[in-house]
Amino acid sequence: MRDFTARPEDGLVWISGASSGIGRALALKLAGEGYKVAVTARSHEKLVELQAEASGLAGSIIVLDGDVTDAEDMEHIMASIEYEHGTLAMAVLNAGVYLPVHAEDLNRADFEKSFAVNLSGVVNCLLPAVRHMKAKGQGQIAIVSSVTGYGGLPTGAAYGATKAALINMAESLKFDLDKMGIRIQLICPGFVDTPATRKNAFPMPSLVSTDEAAQQIAAGLKSQAFEISFPRRFTMMLKLARMLPYSAYFMVVNRVTGWRERPSSAGHHPATPHPAE
């Protein structure tokens, strides 16, 4: 028996963090395939622009403003979907923030905000979505993690911790959700070409465009795969590297990134979107 795969006629798709990056590109991709897509972010203006851009597509965009760190906000969005727009067939929990962490300048706020958006933000969307899908007897949920969740990387102490937690969360939930008729998937992108990544001062192997990322994710959502990861060769290399003994792993990461030769960081680093989101 095949797991449930949401089709346009099954109901809405809800995408969090849809005002830019992968979330925005995926919303347009799915709307182009005929889906009705509810988009959530804090920026009303950007969501309205997205809605206008989708006006000529086979599907449509519904703007539902909200902050994923506010659990009550997400409950209201789910209520709006239920009572105003119909059945929620799929949820893509994508909202995320990347705050680089340097041990020379540790800041509690970097960790707290990362956990609030990337981890608690997913939970705040997940709970009402699962409750709705449980009542309907079917549904599809995709959690956007990152290849940085596979193993520790420079500047990723906060971001990588949240993404590793999301990988474990998705794996753990699958056992029970399978029995409830709710399909869960894990999305682990590599580097994606966004305005944020263009400011990075280090090489980004296997860089893909947001459109390519959206195509990969859209195809993966229709497949029977649990994990959607891309680019395939790059993600496999990272997985294999994580199987090395720690001494070899740290040596390889230092060599590939050139991190050991970099000067120590001084001063606090401002928030920027993560390259994969």
UniProtKB/TrEMBL annotation:
It holds the Pfam family adh_short. Keywords: Oxidoreductase. GO terms for molecular function: oxidoreductase activity. Belongs to the short-chain dehydrogenases/reductases (SDR) family. This is Short-chain dehydrogenase/reductase SDR.
